[in-house]
Amino acid sequence: GENVEQHPSTLSVQEGDSAVIKCTYSDSASNYFPWYKQELGKRPQLIIDIRSNVGEKKDQRIAVTLNKTAKHFSLHITETQPEDSAVYFCAATGANSKLTFGKGITLSVRP
Amino acid sequence: DVKVTQSSRYLVKRTGEKVFLECVQDMDHENMFWYRQDPGLGLRLIYFSYDVKMKEKGDIPEGYSVSREKKERFSLILESASTNQTSMYLCASRWTSGYEQYFGPGTRLTVT
Q1: pLDDT (tens digit per residue) in B45-98
Q2: Cys-Cys with A2: which of A27, B26, B34, B88 at CB 3.0–4.6 Å?
C-alpha cells in the first residue's frame, strides 16, 4: 500500500520567514495530494491540494509543489504569522481513493 | 456548509466494555471514514464505507467493527475496549466524485 513520509516532525520559524514542509510517497499511481492543517483542539481542515497533472498550485501565502519523478511534494508558507502555528498533515491518495496520511509536523511561528 | 458531527467529544470507558462512536454528516456524502489519531503516528484509517451497508477495512481494523445502516450515519464499534484503544477518533466524509474529506470534531476516548 501507499506509504507517506513527512519530515521533519517539528519546525520552528521566525514570524515573517518562510516555512517549507516536505513529504514523500511510495505509490507512483497516487494522483491526489492534499495538505491538512490542524490547530490545537480542532479538526483537520484542508488548506490546499494538488492533482498529479499539475506541478504547482498557489493560494495567497501558501503553495504546494509536486515532483512525480522523485515522488515528493512540498508545502510552502510565505510571510508566516503566529496563526500559522499548527500541525500540518500531508496525504496521498492511492488505491480505492483511500487517503494515506503522513505523521504530521508541528509548525511553531515565533513572534 | 458541510457539517460532520460526532456523538461525544470526550468518553471514558472501562476495559471490556462495548463502545459505540457515532458520526453524522448532513451533506449526502456517499463515503465515510473512521481514523484514529495518536501523537507521532498521524491519522490512521480504521474502516471506511463507500455507501450504505458497504464497509472496507482500513490499515488498522483489528479490535473494531463498523455499521452503516443509513447514508448519513457511520458508527464505529469497539466490541471489547482495551487500554491500547485510548485515542482520538476522527470521522470524515466526502462525495464519491470529490477528493476533499471533511472531518468531524473528534472523540477523545479513554479506556481505563
Answers
A1: 999 999 999 999 999 999 999 999 999 999 999 999 999 999 999 999 998 887
A2: A27
- How many angstroms separate the first and last alpha carbons of chain A? 41
C-alpha cell at A51: 492533482
| Contact criterion met (CB below 8 Å) for B23 and B73 | yes
Angle at CA of residue B69, ends B64 and B73, nearest 5°: 75
B38 falls in which pLDDT band (50, 70, 90)?
very high
The A-side interface with B (CB below 8 A) comprises 1, 6, 9, 32, 34, 42-46, 49, 89, 93, 96-104
Nearest to B45 among A34, A43, A98 (CB): A98
